[in-house]
Specification:
It is a single chain. About 30% of the residues lie in helices and about 30% in strands. The chain has a domain of about 80 residues: Alpha-Beta Plaits, CATH 3.30.70. The model has no long low-confidence stretch (mean pLDDT about 80). With about 130 residues, the protein is α+β, with helices and mostly antiparallel strands. The chain has a 6-stranded antiparallel β-sheet with strand order 1-6-5-2-3-4. The protein has 2 helices and 6 strands. This is HIRAN domain-containing protein. InterPro entries: HIRAN. Keywords: Hydrolase, Metal-binding.
Length: about 130
Protein backbone atom coordinates (compact mmCIF):
# COMPACT_ATOMS: atom_id res chain seq x y z
CA UNK A 1 0.00 0.00 0.00
CA UNK A 2 1.28 3.41 -0.86
CA UNK A 3 0.47 6.43 1.19
CA UNK A 4 0.33 9.92 -0.21
CA UNK A 5 1.67 12.78 1.76
CA UNK A 6 0.72 16.44 1.50
CA UNK A 7 1.28 18.12 -1.85
CA UNK A 8 4.17 20.53 -1.70
CA UNK A 9 5.62 22.98 -4.13
CA UNK A 10 8.76 21.70 -5.83
CA UNK A 11 11.89 22.86 -4.08
CA UNK A 12 15.08 23.78 -5.79
CA UNK A 13 18.40 22.25 -4.82
CA UNK A 14 19.34 25.33 -2.87
CA UNK A 15 17.39 25.45 0.41
CA UNK A 16 17.22 29.27 0.60
CA UNK A 17 16.15 29.53 -3.04
CA UNK A 18 13.46 26.88 -2.53
CA UNK A 19 11.95 28.68 0.42
CA UNK A 20 11.95 31.92 -1.56
CA UNK A 21 10.18 30.19 -4.44
CA UNK A 22 7.60 28.74 -2.06
CA UNK A 23 6.96 32.18 -0.54
CA UNK A 24 6.51 33.71 -4.00
CA UNK A 25 4.03 30.99 -4.95
CA UNK A 26 2.01 31.53 -1.78
CA UNK A 27 2.01 35.30 -2.29
CA UNK A 28 0.92 34.83 -5.91
CA UNK A 29 -1.93 32.54 -4.84
CA UNK A 30 -3.06 35.00 -2.18
CA UNK A 31 -3.04 37.92 -4.64
CA UNK A 32 -4.83 35.91 -7.31
CA UNK A 33 -7.56 34.97 -4.85
CA UNK A 34 -7.99 38.59 -3.72
CA UNK A 35 -8.09 40.23 -7.16
CA UNK A 36 -11.48 38.99 -8.41
CA UNK A 37 -13.28 40.12 -5.25
CA UNK A 38 -11.54 43.51 -5.31
CA UNK A 39 -12.38 43.98 -8.99
CA UNK A 40 -15.98 42.97 -8.37
CA UNK A 41 -16.29 45.33 -5.41
CA UNK A 42 -15.07 48.27 -7.50
CA UNK A 43 -17.69 47.57 -10.21
CA UNK A 44 -20.68 47.01 -7.94
CA UNK A 45 -22.37 50.26 -7.01
CA UNK A 46 -25.53 50.67 -5.03
CA UNK A 47 -28.63 51.73 -6.91
CA UNK A 48 -29.37 55.46 -6.84
CA UNK A 49 -31.47 56.58 -3.92
CA UNK A 50 -34.65 58.53 -4.65
CA UNK A 51 -34.57 61.66 -2.52
CA UNK A 52 -37.29 63.81 -4.11
CA UNK A 53 -40.41 63.44 -6.21
CA UNK A 54 -41.35 67.02 -6.92
CA UNK A 55 -42.65 69.52 -9.42
CA UNK A 56 -40.72 71.85 -11.70
CA UNK A 57 -40.73 75.39 -10.28
CA UNK A 58 -40.43 78.45 -12.54
CA UNK A 59 -40.65 76.41 -15.75
CA UNK A 60 -39.32 77.94 -18.92
CA UNK A 61 -42.31 78.54 -21.27
CA UNK A 62 -41.11 76.22 -24.06
CA UNK A 63 -40.11 73.40 -21.69
CA UNK A 64 -43.46 71.58 -21.82
CA UNK A 65 -42.24 68.94 -24.29
CA UNK A 66 -41.01 66.56 -21.61
CA UNK A 67 -41.17 62.82 -22.10
CA UNK A 68 -41.75 60.46 -19.20
CA UNK A 69 -38.45 58.80 -18.26
CA UNK A 70 -36.38 61.55 -19.93
CA UNK A 71 -33.05 61.87 -18.11
CA UNK A 72 -32.29 65.28 -16.65
CA UNK A 73 -29.38 66.83 -14.84
CA UNK A 74 -29.27 69.19 -11.90
CA UNK A 75 -26.94 72.15 -11.78
CA UNK A 76 -26.26 74.35 -8.78
CA UNK A 77 -26.86 78.06 -9.52
CA UNK A 78 -25.07 80.32 -7.05
CA UNK A 79 -25.96 83.71 -8.51
CA UNK A 80 -29.74 83.55 -8.99
CA UNK A 81 -31.07 86.63 -7.20
CA UNK A 82 -34.38 85.07 -6.12
CA UNK A 83 -32.92 81.99 -4.42
CA UNK A 84 -29.29 81.71 -3.21
CA UNK A 85 -29.72 77.92 -2.91
CA UNK A 86 -31.14 77.50 -6.44
CA UNK A 87 -30.79 74.23 -8.32
CA UNK A 88 -31.54 74.37 -12.05
CA UNK A 89 -33.13 71.44 -13.87
CA UNK A 90 -31.74 70.91 -17.37
CA UNK A 91 -31.93 68.40 -20.19
CA UNK A 92 -28.81 66.39 -20.95
CA UNK A 93 -28.15 68.83 -23.80
CA UNK A 94 -28.07 71.75 -21.32
CA UNK A 95 -31.49 73.31 -22.08
CA UNK A 96 -32.87 74.79 -18.87
CA UNK A 97 -36.36 73.58 -17.99
CA UNK A 98 -36.80 75.34 -14.66
CA UNK A 99 -35.72 75.01 -11.04
CA UNK A 100 -36.34 72.82 -8.04
CA UNK A 101 -38.79 74.34 -5.54
CA UNK A 102 -36.91 76.53 -3.01
CA UNK A 103 -37.62 74.36 0.08
CA UNK A 104 -36.30 71.23 -1.59
CA UNK A 105 -33.43 73.05 -3.29
CA UNK A 106 -32.20 74.30 0.08
CA UNK A 107 -31.24 70.80 1.23
CA UNK A 108 -30.11 69.49 -2.15
CA UNK A 109 -27.93 72.55 -2.83
CA UNK A 110 -25.88 71.76 0.28
CA UNK A 111 -25.31 68.22 -0.96
CA UNK A 112 -24.29 69.50 -4.40
CA UNK A 113 -21.93 72.05 -2.84
CA UNK A 114 -20.16 69.17 -1.10
CA UNK A 115 -19.74 67.13 -4.28
CA UNK A 116 -22.77 64.83 -4.17
CA UNK A 117 -23.63 63.16 -7.47
CA UNK A 118 -27.26 63.50 -8.49
CA UNK A 119 -29.48 62.88 -11.47
CA UNK A 120 -33.14 63.36 -12.26
CA UNK A 121 -35.79 62.16 -14.66
CA UNK A 122 -39.24 63.18 -15.76
CA UNK A 123 -42.03 61.17 -14.11
CA UNK A 124 -44.92 63.13 -15.66
CA UNK A 125 -45.20 66.51 -17.42
CA UNK A 126 -43.97 69.09 -14.91
CA UNK A 127 -42.91 66.44 -12.34
CA UNK A 128 -39.43 65.11 -11.71
CA UNK A 129 -37.76 62.46 -9.61
CA UNK A 130 -34.37 63.36 -8.08
CA UNK A 131 -31.85 60.58 -7.42
CA UNK A 132 -28.77 60.65 -5.22
CA UNK A 133 -25.85 58.43 -6.29
CA UNK A 134 -23.92 57.08 -3.31
Amino acid sequence: MSTCGPIRAPRSRDRAGGEMMERRMMLGLALTAALPSAALASRVRPAPLEVLDTYLANPVPDSRAQVEGQPLRLRRVHDWQFDPAAVAVETEEGQRLGYLPPRQAEVLSRLLDHGARTSARVTAPGRIQVLLHL
